[in-house]
Amino acid sequence: MNDQVLHIIGAAVGEGASDGGCKWGAAALKDHGMARALAATGRTVTWGDTISAQPMLATSRLHAIEVFSDHLSVAVQQVLRHGQQPLVVGGDHSCAVGTWSAVADHVRPQGALGLIWIDAHLDAHTPDTSDTQAPHGMPLAALLGHGAPGMTGLFGWSGKLRPEHVALIGARSYEPAEQALLARLGVRVMYMPEVLERGFAACFAEAQAIAQSGTAGWGISLDLDGLDPRDAPGTGTPVEQGIRLADALAVLAGCQQQAGFVAMELTEYNPLRDFGGRTAQAATDLVCAVLAPERATMELAA
Question: Where are the transmembrane segments (predicted)?
């Protein structure tokens, strides 16, 4: 059984999106009992401080996310330095900048970070290409070294992710500029038609091979809108015909035991759209599947 402490960090940020409801996602999932459910799998779990965006102190929405990203990255860095495993719960997907900048900086002495990004969107805009200027559409580009300096340059260096170590699964809503950037960089993107044709299991196996190959550690950034809204309607920007929850649960179970697994992030839960708590339960089930120790994973699979 994994005895590493699992430390949950709430990311109270909705300023990166047009609909700010995701700002309350972490608090709602805490109330829903996510920590208790994770503890029931056999993990030692702590829910630490919640990092909140402070838009009133910022000169713009982008500036608010830059400041927030810096604060979140420091919090994640501290968790890693204490030998604990971080689970960041958001919050709109702009929180990925802080999360994975810290993880990349932590593993940097040993090598590169690999990342599997499950999402209905590409999140690869920059301020120069985004019509909406919504920062939650920019985090992957920023982590790859493209975008506003306050998002790309945390910890004093840029390019937290190398394109060859990143894989996206489930994209089905995006703009040409994002697609062009990722194609130019050579990032592997498995758009939803390919996922439907090959199956999520085969796509995730390929993504895992990409994230693990030649890296010092890897993680999962899971945007709940990557799921089909029939299973998870309570997201910031739901998009039809996504990954089914049952497939995700079956495939993601046991990631905790895979070599080099470092951290997980769950984003874009919007409790204001989650009538009946169905999406909160889906989110809780997903993190339990990914992060459960070996014994609990075997019981879930039985």
Answer: none
Q: Return the number of other C-beta atoms located less than 10 Å from residue 9's C-beta.
A: 27
Residue 1 in any domain: the answer is no
Per residue in 98-142, pLDDT (tens digit) is 999 999 999 999 999 999 999 999 999 999 998 787 889 999 999
Determine whether 49 is an active site residue.
no
**Is 19 considered catalytic here?**
no
Is 268 noted as a catalytic residue in this protein? yes
Question: Would residue 121 show up in a list of annotated catalytic residues for this protein?
Answer: yes
- Which residue among 93, 106, 125, 146 is the active-site one? 93
When divided into structural domains, the chain yields a total of 1
Domain hosting residue 93, numbered range: 6-301
**Which residues touch 245 (CB under 8 Å, ≥6 apart)?**
227, 228, 231, 232, 282, 285, 286
Q: Is 175 helix (H, G, I), strand (E, B) or coil?
A: coil
pTM of the model: 0.96
Q: Does 123 qualify as catalytic in the annotation?
A: yes
60: domain CATH number is 3.40.800.10
Instruction: Tell which residue, 250, 197, 202, 252, has the closest CA to residue 222.
Output: 252
